[in-house]
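Incident log, structure service

09:12 report received: a user says their structure output differs between two submissions of the same chain.
09:20 pulled the input from the user's history:
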Amino acid sequence: MTRSSVLAEIEHLDPKRDFERISFLSTNYDFPWDVEQSLSLAFFRTYGIPTISVLLDETGEFRQRPQKRYDDTKLILAEMLDSGLDSERGREANRRMNRMHARYSIKNEDYLYVLSTIVLEPIRWNRRWGWRLYTDRELEASLEYMRHLASRMRIRDVPASLEELERWSRGYEATRFRHTESNRRVADYTLNLYLSWFPRALRPLVRQAIFAMFDDPLLDAFGYQHPPRWLRGMLDLAMRVRAHAVRLLPRRRTPRLISQSRTRTYPGGHALTDLGVPGAEPPMEGRLSV
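09:34 re-ran on a clean worker, output below:
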C-alpha cells in the first residue's frame, strides 16, 4: 500500500464510523516512527502532574523495571490499535489495563489528562515535524478513537472537540504542573532508560536533545535546566530536514505493527499475560512470535 493509496482510502472513510481503520492506516503506514516518539513525550508530560507521579513512583515499577514498564504500556496500546478495540486481543488488552488501574485510587481528571496527552502529542508533533500534515479525517478519527477508549476505561467528561480538549489539557497543566521530588524521580528513571539505548559517548548530547523537546513548564516541573535557545533551534532544523527526507523515501507497502515487533523486554514475542504486573492476568493465552 502506497502513501497515496493510504490517503485515498482515508478520504473515502467516515471518521465517526471508521475511526479505527483511519487510525490504523495513519499510524502504521504513514507515521509509525513519529507516533512512537511523540507518545514517549506524552508519557513524560504525565509525570509533571504530582498526583500522577506520586502513584507511579510508589509502585516501584519505574525504579525496578523501567524497560518493562515502557514496553508494556506501548504494547497494550498497540494491541488495541493493531487488532481492534473489539477484537479478542483488543478487549483483553483493555481489560488488563483496567484491572491494573483498578488497584489504585485514580481521579477521573487524571485519567482524562493522560488520555489527552496520548491524543494531543502526536498531533502537536505532526504540526511541527510531520512529513505531511494530518487531514481533517485523521484528526476527527483520533478524537473518536479517544472517545471509544475513554468509554471502555470508564473515563467521563471527554471534551466534544480537539480544540476543547487542547484547552482543557493546557488548563489542567497550568494549574497542576509544579515541581516535586516524585516528578523528578519518575522523569529521571525514564530519562535514564532512554539514554541506555544509546552509546555512552552520545548520551550527554541525547540528554540535551530530549530536554530541548520539553517546554519550559514541563522542565520546571522536573527541576531540569532549560536548554539554550540555539540547541532548540538546531533540533527543530534537524527534525524538519528529517521530515523532508522521509517525504522523498520509497513508500511503505506493509504496516509497521508495534504489537508484533521485538522489544527489549520480550525479544521472542509476548503474551498478554506477560504485560503489566502480577495478579492482573486476563484469561486469554496465546504468545505472539516475531
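09:41 both user submissions now match this output. Likely a transient worker issue. Closing.
09:42 reviewer note: Confidence is low (pLDDT under 50) at residues 280-290. DSSP finds 14 helices and no strands in the chain.
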